[in-house]
Amino acid sequence: MDNATMARLLAETADLLEIDGGDSFRIRSYRRAADAVEQTTVDLNEAVSDTARLLEIPGIGKGMAANLQAIAEAGSLPLRDELIAKYGSSLLELLKLPGMGPKTVALLWDAGQISSIDQLAKAIDDGKLNGLPRMGAKQIEKLKKGIEDYKRSAGRFRIDQAEEAAKAVTAWLLDFPGIERVTPAGSLRRGRETEGDLDLLVTGPACEPGHTQAAVDHAAAYPGIHSIIAKGENKISFYLSNSLQVDVRLLPSSSYGAALQYFTGSKAHNVSLRQRALKMGYTLSEWSLARLDDESVVAAKTEEDIYKALKMDWMPPEMRENLGEIEAAAAHALPELIELKDIRGDVHMHTTATDGHNSILEMAEAGLARGYKYIAITDHSKNLAMTNGLDEKRALEHIKRIREVDEQMDGKIRVFAGIEVDILGDGALDLDDEVLAQMEVVIASVHTKLEQPKDEMTARVLRALENPYTRILGHPTGRLLLRREPFQIDLGQVLRKAAELGVAVEHNAAPERLDLSDRDLRLAKELGCKIVINTDAHDTRHLEKMTYGIRQLRRAWLGPEDVLNTRTAKQFLAALRPKP
Ligand code: DGT
Ligand code: CA
Ligand code: CA
Ligand code: ZN
């Protein structure tokens, strides 16, 4: 059991105790222990047998040390188990709703033994919450929205987490001598921003009919498996310990293409494609494209064969959402999509001057190592005090240091001076114009007061765009995938204004953001916006996350010409809004 899981069990115990009306001193000690376990660099799994070592961890006393030992031994904590038995484990799910703390959960329990999200939804619908203390109409509305958001994101995983898991399982499968190829299909192959489960397609001699047992057994022995859901002749499904489901299918190489096409989806794309096949006298399945009349196979071995037999061009998986790609492929009119190698620079990143982990020089060298021709250093501004944001004086000093590194790189890579300047609550920018005037890349972003009503937020961002020094609008909706919904904003109006003023809009490639979303990117292109893709790196390693953003641009059908930082350094600067 890892530290994170132990910390979670302790924190949940504290929450349950509070709901139970427990002694506040005791509640606090569990909470403090949870924090301590989360913060410590000691591997508790290893240290747990040595009480003295546990006691050295600040926040862990004798009682908690015993609790940690109990957790390590039994995988659970008796007190937590007791409370779960009393209230049910769904109570913990209630706590995951935004704005829901133990006090509110206790209130709901007392009001009608409401102990799950479904029961809460029903109680709201039945009007049972009206009149409860601290439950005004506004509060109830908020809860309702929280439930909707939660249901939408529950059980999904970010693309970086899904990809990491896919890579690990793939490596394990490829270790087996009779397995030659493993391909992730489904939403991951289509590059969706989140994945519901992984669909891995496997082929090789060990996957041919009648010979699959050993390969299935090998898959079942993957060390990361939490529990097996189903195990058959050609398929095994299991949960990883983070509860991500993985479906592994073993396929004969003769029908690999048909299966890849089918399991890549999307469902909507497949439905449309099947209709086209029917009109042509064919039937399309996960096994083959076959003639309707005599069932003879027309194509099955590769995806290209199948699309070709349907008189279409093969299309990148990111396009397969039934949004016009079938018609375009049939008309041989598919657009050229952007690729990672088209990107020549990354112009949003942070350094140790604020909340980044690396120096200007280290970021420049990492950019160079990726083959970039330019980067921009864009640290935070003073409004974001928790990041040690730059005030005017420090910003000017920072520009000087950036110029020095630019010199030092001797033309191998250009290092532009920039800032990610906060858009204040009223739409003013956080730094004086005279300072902004000295930088090449001024990104304006909203980081605070995210709760503003829609018209206020829209007016705020419009005002920020009007500032003549604003050149890029950073992460325009402020969402954090599966954690925080976009803030309320009239994005159409903002994008139209950005297009009119020549302010570029950012696609933030950090996998927890990925905004603008694929759909918003399509709108941005339609409206004629300039588009920039950035990683918002806070560490040299984050520069690698560009790939997740590229997938979203491709899903929006963007080509290299649609994105400013596919251009040379000179062309890039020239394409930004001119300085006043
Ligand atoms: P996810 O897992 O929710 O992120 O999304 P997908 O697209 O990976 O969906 P999943 O895992 O349920 O199925 C993988 C692919 O298999 C899906 O994209 C298309 C295909 N598929 C699954 N069920 C059906 C179905 O009932 N009809 C059709 N036409 N295709 C299906
Ligand atoms: Ca899937
Ligand atoms: Ca699946
Ligand atoms: Zn930011």
Keywords:
580 residues; alpha/beta; DNA polymerase, domain 1; Beta Polymerase, domain 2; 5 domains; 7-stranded parallel beta sheet; 5-stranded mixed beta sheet; 25 helices; binds 2'-deoxyguanosine-5'-triphosphate; binds calcium ion; binds zinc ion
Task: Write up what this structure looks like.
- By secondary structure, the protein is of the alpha/beta class.
- It has 5 domains: 1-87, DNA polymerase, domain 1 (Orthogonal Bundle), CATH 1.10.150.110; 95-143, no CATH class; 157-251, 2-Layer Sandwich (Beta Polymerase, domain 2), CATH 3.30.460.10; 260-330, Beta Polymerase, domain 3 (2-Layer Sandwich), CATH 3.30.210; 340-575, TIM Barrel (Alpha-Beta Barrel), CATH 3.20.20.
- The protein has 25 helices and 17 strands.
- Strands 11-12-13-14-15-16-17 form a 7-stranded parallel beta sheet. It has a 5-stranded mixed beta sheet with strand order 2-4-7-6-5, with helices on both faces.
- Strand 12 (374-380), helix 19 and strand 13 (414-422) form a beta-alpha-beta unit.
- Helix 1 packs across helix 6 and helix 14 (256-264) crosses helix 16.
- The longest helix is centred in the N-terminal third of the chain and has 17 residues, at 3-19.
- The radius of gyration is 27 Å and the shape is globular.
- It starts with a helix and ends in a 5-residue tail after the last helix.
- The mean pLDDT is 95.
- The structure holds 2'-deoxyguanosine-5'-triphosphate, calcium ion (2 copies) and zinc ion.
- Zinc ion binds at residues 420, 445, 447, 474-475.
